[in-house]
Write a structure and sequence with these properties.
The chain is an alpha+beta fold and 690 residues long. 20% of the residues lie in helices and 31% in strands. It contains 13 helices and 40 strands. Strands 5, 6, 7, 8, 11, 12, 14, 15, 19 and 20 form a ten-stranded antiparallel β-sheet that branches. Helix 4 packs parallel to helix 5, helix 7 packs parallel to helix 8 and helix 11 packs parallel to helix 12. The longest helix is centred in the last third of the chain and has 21 residues.
């Protein structure tokens, strides 16, 4: 029997549909070309045991099961009988496969959906339906694909508030490596992308496989290798006991899991994720944004905000966002959450004077919300104490002096939708910064664990608001980068990458978050000269060069800036606007630069490219490694020139003084002579094909 093959952009997924059970995955990785399909399955079957789409012991799989659950009155292990396979695929163009299966004795039906897009990214989800009379308790349902024996190393990520996406690597031995999240949101410490690869893989070299759970609630990612030789990567929602109980005829659908492969390092795997998101939700031009949080905090004096807006517009900023503090009782962070009415005591004429002034300056106007949260000291909670996500008999432990609203409760949902819809309409808001500032502890909805229902309700609220206001843009912020996943990005236009604007920390945070998120969706701001989180003082040029490679913004009290600083900031904003067509559409590349004191990265289009060398600390070696620029066409000839101000340096090579022309082969293999930059400086340069 010929296999089912999905192939695109150098990737192939081979399914063996022989037998009567679920298809087995014989291969996920490099495209195998126009091989003899009749002889392909026997060859692959002789190499490695292949798990089915949903592994179970009945398939001789003795690792983590794809489905875990139970039915009151007895347990019956599931053995799936395949009912049908529907496939639409064209060689080199990807396609879709839908598999329907059932187990009459277990009283369950299953639908597995797989798709490969034109960029070679594979997405998968399962839908489980209970067809028996008694309830079925779903304990776990995950998506998994196999990886070969040569994938001997794992990379995942951890972190904390203001220092997200810290990488950690280890050998991929036998057993399970599982990252489980029970924070009710994606989490500062969430891995985001679990990667398996050939030992020593980097950004530009080695073979890698990776998985991402596109879900904003509790979730898991895992890698498993059995003694029999099989290994796989999996991901899915993490369910608490009793959280999903299916009555007769009810279904549970997993979130989408995203699988990516690359034969050329992490950059290749990352590019498939970027391409998929860009194709699914194209964005308009990303306006340079000023957020007033670190500029004024809760000081909402109108005159001060008007002056801040004037200075922002003079610097070329295109959007003004009023952050926390504009609604009733909100003079500090211990009261008012949930009371989504403009505070009449602070804003007697509403927000109209500020919004109108901002728009007269040619800027868009945006507003901060934290819809899912409530302060005990609020009119809302005094009127509706039963709206908290928890047990009525005992309030969940507080964090940040706030509790979580039960959005799955129809009355709470309706209140929030009315308030958001009303304010967006009244002020014709262009933008919402949607925050979520605490982990969810002891969530209970209708007597059962509540994260699943809360996450779905949040998605519905976002979807409904966007349906009513199609031009509205929404930023997902969650104490910084604690809700960064493709589930929330399917409904929002960018994520706030971190609450730290410290450019030195941001270089690494953005580098690793960028594996999952393209630059135009990563909020990246020029912070104050003296950082509010770390206390570190950094030069404006380094802060701006860091913010340049994202959705650029400013979070700095410009009323305190000197005229020289404002002029320099305006130069960087103008540079970002000029380079934005490349930065927000090109292929992100990260060099495996041998000097650990510096990072070399860029964004490449066929005709143009932008690169930056960021010198983080003092260089140990006297001689600097050349700047080998990845991602260029070897046959192309490029003019290289500095973009933006020249940084402080002990030595600047000749090419920084004027344009030079070199081939992509020379730039990629031999590179450019490196400047001897001082710590906490960066050199930005651009390339144009001639």
């Amino acid at each position: 029997m010929s296999p089912l093959i999905l192939s695109a952009a150098g990737t192939a997924l081979v399914l063996d549909t022989s037998g009567s059970g679920l298809p087995r995955v014989r291969h996920f990785g490099a495209d195998l070309g126009a091989a003899d399909r009749a002889g392909l399955l026997p060859a692959l079957a002789s190499l490695t045991p292949a798990p089915p789409l949903l592994p179970a012991q009945g398939d001789s799989w003795y690792g983590r099961p794809g489905l875990s659950g139970n039915r009151e009155g007895g347990h019956w292990p599931v053995r799936w009988a395949r009912d049908r396979v529907d496939a639409q695929a064209a060689p080199g163009e990807g396609g879709t496969v839908t598999v329907a299966a059932s187990d009459a004795r277990a009283g369950l039906e299953l639908v597995c959906e797989l798709a490969m897009d034109a960029g070679g990214l594979v997405t998968m989800r399962h839908t489980l339906t209970n067809v028996a009379a008694s309830p079925y308790r779903v304990e776990g349902l995950v998506c998994a694909l196999p990886v070969p024996a040569r994938a001997g190393e794992l990379l995942d990520f951890t972190g904390r508030w203001a220092l997200e996406k810290v990488p950690q690597r280890r050998a991929f031995g036998q057993g399970v490596w599982s990252r489980e999240n029970r924070r009710g949101r994606t989490g500062h410490d969430a891995t985001g992308l679990l990667v398996a690869g050939t030992p020593g893989f980097g950004f530009r070299g080695g073979e890698v496989w990776a998985v991402h759970a596109g879900w904003s609630g509790d979730h898991l990612h895992y890698a498993e290798r059995l003694a029999e030789g099989s290994a796989l990567l999996g991901a899915g929602e993490l369910l608490e006991p009793g959280e999903v109980v299916l009555a007769h005829g009810e279904s549970y659908r997993t979130p989408w899991a995203y699988f990516t492969w690359s034969g050329g390092g992490l950059d290749g795997a990352s590019a498939r994720l970027h391409d998929h998101l860009r194709a699914a939700r194209p964005l308009p031009v990303r306006p340079v944004t000023l957020n007033n949080w670190e500029a004024t905090y809760f000081d909402h004096g109108l005159d001060r905000l008007l002056e801040l807006a004037d200075r922002a517009a003079a610097a070329g900023i295109e959007r003004f966002v009023l952050d926390d503090g504009w609604f009733r009782h909100r003079r500090h962070d211990r009261a008012g959450l949930g009371d989504w009415y403009v505070d009449e005591g602070v804003w007697p004429d509403g927000l109209h004077p500020l919004a109108e002034h901002v728009r007269k300056l040619g800027m868009q106007f945006g507003l901060w919300f934290e819809p899912e949260m409530v302060n005990p000291d609020s009119d809302l909670l005094r009127a509706h104490p039963d709206w908290i996500l928890g047990r009525a008999e005992r309030m969940p432990p507080p964090q940040r002096t706030q509790q979580v609203l039960d959005l799955a409760r129809p009355e709470a949902y309706a209140y929030l939708l009315e308030r958001l819809d009303s304010l967006v309409g009244e002020y014709a808001l262009d933008y919402i910064k949607w925050d979520h500032n605490r982990d969810i502890a002891e969530p209970v909805h209708d007597g059962v664990p509540g994260v699943h229902a809360q996450t779905l309700a949040t998605y519905r609220l976002l979807d409904e608001l966007r349906a009513r206001h199609p031009r509205l843009e929404i930023e997902s912020c969650s104490s910084g980068g604690a809700r960064v996943d493709h589930g929330i990005l399917a409904r929002t236009d960018r994520v706030w990458t971190s609450d730290s604007n410290d450019a030195l920390d941001r270089q690494a945070i953005q580098r690793w978050t960028g594996l999952l998120v393209p630059p135009e969706r990563m909020g990246s701001h020029v912070g104050a000269p003296h950082d509010h989180v770390t206390g570190r003082s950094l030069p404006l040029a380094f802060r701006a060069a860091t913010a340049l490679f994202g959705h650029m913004g400013v979070e700095w009290d410009l009323t305190s800036a000197s005229e020289e600083e404002l002029a320099e900031l305006a130069e960087w904003v103008a540079l970002h606007k000029r380079l934005r067509p490349v930065l927000h559409a090109g292929r992100v590349v990260r060099a495996d630069h041998p000097d650990p004191s510096a990072l070399l990265h860029g964004v490449v289009l066929p005709e143009r490219a932008v690169f930056a060398l960021a010198q983080l600390t003092s260089r140990v070696a006297i001689g600097a490694a050349p700047l080998r620029l990845p991602g260029l066409d070897p046959a192309g000839v490029y003019e290289v020139r500095v973009a933006g101000p020249l940084p402080r340096a002990a030595h600047l090579p000749e090419w920084t003084g004027g344009p030079v022309r070199l081939s992509g082969a020379v730039l990629g293999e031999l590179g450019l002579p490196s400047p001897a930059l001082r710590p906490e400086t960066a050199l930005v340069f651009e390339l144009e094909r001639v």
